[in-house]
From TrEMBL:
One MF annotation (Gene Ontology) recorded for this entry: ATP binding
Bacterial type II secretion system protein E domain boundaries: 204-586
UniProtKB keywords: ATP-binding, Nucleotide-binding, Plasmid
Upper classification of the organism: Bacteria, Pseudomonadati, Pseudomonadota, Betaproteobacteria, Burkholderiales
Matches recorded under InterPro entries: P-loop_NTPase, T2SS/T4SS_dom
Protein name as it appears in the record: Type II secretion system protein E
SUPFAM superfamilies in the cross-refs: P-loop containing nucleoside triphosphate hydrolases (SSF52540)
Gene Ontology terms: cellular component: plasma membrane
PANTHER family, sorted: SLL1921 PROTEIN, TYPE II SECRETION SYSTEM PROTEIN GSPE-RELATED
Domain of life: Bacteria
Pfam families named among the record's database cross-references: T2SSE
UniProt similarity note: Belongs to the GSP E family.
Length: 655
């Protein structure tokens, strides 16, 4: 009896700070091994027991040989996810707070009520427990108390199916914090049975449906808990817009996001938590077509948390390079690189620049007799004739080991072409190196602001690919950088209208702007167009005037096939020399010539501007201003003159 009383004092009441000892000394007597030493107060443990020895260590020794038998309190069941927890045959009512558990047990052991409210005939009780504590003596003692009505003020009936429900630590934390309650589990059950019956789920579908019909690439839910209402924004034609029709009460948006998270897969956490970064995937059916939302949430403080969902049309038709608006000589460059069954083809660009769509086009255009494999985080676009594998990588504690098994298997699969998605860290960088060195073609993407910037990104400490590897001929066959720009509608206006009413910001400087374009590019002014802000029935967006005048997007790209001169500069990390070398390849080709060798992505955009499909004002934000371009050219000219003067002086001395 003395041991039981001491046990209750040590583990079923909060610990005091003074006179602390390590509880593992006592726990050894009852075969319990906590993950961390638990500090408890000797004074508190002995306060109400007269027969506890004054020497705590002697008491522990005296009971060390005692054979403690655990009584039969029913079986236990394991639950891995909140979805499984919601399917338990008895309704979860909530946690029972009548028992003052020690602070160290609060997030590991919790009595819970199922089936009915406390005191009702249907009420049952079970212990929710972290796997590490499932067979601990604290749980056994707590079950003993619950099974004996004389030891507590309320009579509870243990759940006959399982006295212990073993749940993951993350789910236990959410329950303890109140993030998961009876209502949220009721929502989860509705989603499990039929998501379409839940009103908040229907609201999510309506929002995404509107975005899909407007060709939005992303939907942004921006919570502002300091305001009554919050806004939903969409990325349409590269613009971050906020339709007033989707402004809604903040609590409604939070409920929509909570329900959306419940319907997702591959998420880190059982519920939407505004305090941490989270990611998951949500499958929807919009207008009878499958849509995948790639969820990424940020625990921003001001004005509040934000969730961005990328809209991925997983079964979309694979477009050809021509349909993606690549130019003929650029397509020929791709074909040269893809014909060789080794080396890497790298697609570079900023976020939302269409890299995944382009790389799907490349993989889809490969002949059927070449065996193809996709390893992605996650699979975004289903590509006919290709084996595809999703890799779910956690936001925290990611070691990249998720790639190991599939990478080893790929070596035995006799693959010709392997898509490995985004190169963003050492795990993916080393995967690319490994596959290239085994003589297989690799297709991958990376986030950089230029094609040549991909070399610096791969060689950075973050990715860790050596410059020795990058400078070997054939290891990197081709690097493409691409950007997406709003394409002018057929209602576009002549460039000279830039100085007229409705374009006030250019009214004073418009003529200088036009003259600068002529100095830089020597283009036919009659072919140049700007967007019509009034729009037309084809392009007008009610409530979103910033989208008027544009219809869809077009692509501007620069492509680099590394030669030996460039590779020697890569090895020496001579970024300036690399840029000058590639620019020299353009030679005397005019800017309104469709040949793109040696031209930058900005110069590709200028070519499309010369054909009347791009507004010059849309080119500058994606790259840099035309004024800056003029300054850079002047600087390069002065540098060339300086080098020429140095060479002349050196030759003169030799003579």
């Amino acid at each position: 009896m003395a041991m039981v009383n001491l046990f209750r004092k040590l583990f079923l009441r909060p610990a005091l700070v003074e006179n602390q000892v390590i509880a593992s000394d006592i726990a050894a007597a009852v075969n319990f091994r906590p993950r961390k030493p638990l500090k408890v107060s000797v004074a508190d443990a002995m306060a109400d027991s007269e027969d506890i020895p004054s020497n705590i260590e002697a008491f522990a020794t005296s009971v060390a040989s005692t054979n403690v038998q655990h009584g039969p309190f029913g079986k236990s069941i394991s639950v891995e996810t909140i979805k499984d927890f919601a399917t338990l045959p008895l309704l979860f009512e909530g946690l029972v707070n009548d028992f003052q558990l020690g602070s160290h047990l609060g997030y590991n052991v919790q009595p819970a009520l199922f089936g009915g409210v406390q005191g009702s005939e249907a009420a049952r009780i079970a212990i929710l427990v972290n796997p590490l504590y499932a067979n601990s003596d604290e749980v056994v003692e707590l079950l003993s108390i619950l099974a004996n009505p004389k030891q507590h003020k309320h009579e509870f009936k243990l759940w006959e199916h399982a006295s212990r429900v073993i749940i993951p630590h993350s789910l236990m934390l959410s329950l303890s914090r109140g993030e998961i309650d009876k209502n949220s589990l009721s929502n989860r059950r509705k989603i499990n049975s039929d998501p379409k019956k839940h009103s908040f789920y229907v609201a999510l579908e309506n929002i995404i449906q509107w975005g899909v019909r407007q060709n939005a690439s992303d939907v942004h839910f921006n919570l502002n808990f300091n305001e009554e209402h919050s806004e939903v924004r969409f990325t349409i034609n590269g613009r971050y817009v906020a339709p007033q029709m989707w402004r809604m009460p903040t609590q409604t948006m939070f409920q929509i996001l909570s329900v959306a998270w419940m319907s997702g897969t591959g998420g880190n956490g059982p519920s939407y938590d505004t305090r941490v970064e989270q990611q998951c995937r949500i499958a929807l059916k919009i207008d009878d077509k499958p849509i995948m939302l790639r969820w990424a949430s940020a625990s921003t403080e001001s004005p509040g948390p934000s969730v961005t969902t990328r809209i991925i049309k997983s079964d979309a038709n694979i477009l050809t390079l021509e349909q993606l608006s690549y130019l003929p000589d650029q397509i020929a460059t791709y074909n040269r690189a893809m014909n060789a069954e080794k080396g890497a083809i790298i697609l570079a660009g900023v976020v939302n620049s269409g890299k995944s769509v382009t790389i799907a086009s490349l993989m889809g255009s490969l002949p059927d007799y070449r065996k193809k494999l996709g390893i992605e985080d996650p699979v975004e676009i289903l590509i006919p004739g290709m084996l595809q594998k999703s890799i779910n990588r956690p936001l925290e504690g990611d070691t990249g080991k998720e790639f190991d098994a599939i990478a080893k298997t790929a070596k035995r699969f006799a693959m010709n072409d392997i898509l490995i998605g985004e190169i963003r860290d050492k795990a993916t960088g080393m995967l690319m190196v490994d596959i290239v060195l085994m003589g297989t073609s690799v297709y991958c993407t990376t986030h950089t602001p230029s094609a040549l910037g991909a070399f610096d990104k791969l060689a950075s400490d973050m990715v860790g690919v050596s410059r020795d590897f990058l400078s070997v001929p054939g290891n990197v066959k081709l690097i493409t950088y691409q950007a997406l720009l709003p394409k002018l509608c057929t209602c576009a206006l002549p460039l000279k209208c830039i100085t007229q009413q409705g374009h006030a910001e250019y009214k004073a400087s418009g003529n200088d702007y036009i003259k600068r374009l002529q100095r830089l590019y020597d283009l036919d002014e009659s072919m140049l167009r700007i967007g019509n802000r009034e729009g037309c029935p084809k392009c007008r967006h009610e409530g979103l005037p910033e989208l008027n005048g544009f219809k869809g997007r077009t692509l501007a790209a620069e492509m680099v096939e590394p030669d030996e001169t460039l590779l020697s500069m890569v090895k020496q990390a001579d970024s300036i020399g690399m840029r000058r070398h590639v620019a020299e390849l353009r030679g005397s080709t005019r800017f309104d010539d469709p040949l793109m060798v040696g031209k930058s992505a900005m110069e590709c955009a200028v070519y499309k501007m010369s054909t009347g499909i791009l507004d010059p004002r849309e080119i500058e934000p994606r790259f840099h201003s035309f004024e800056r371009e003029e300054m850079m050219r002047a600087s390069s000219k002065h540098y060339a003159e300086h080098v020429e003067k140095q060479v002349y002086t050196a030759l003169k001395k030799v003579r």
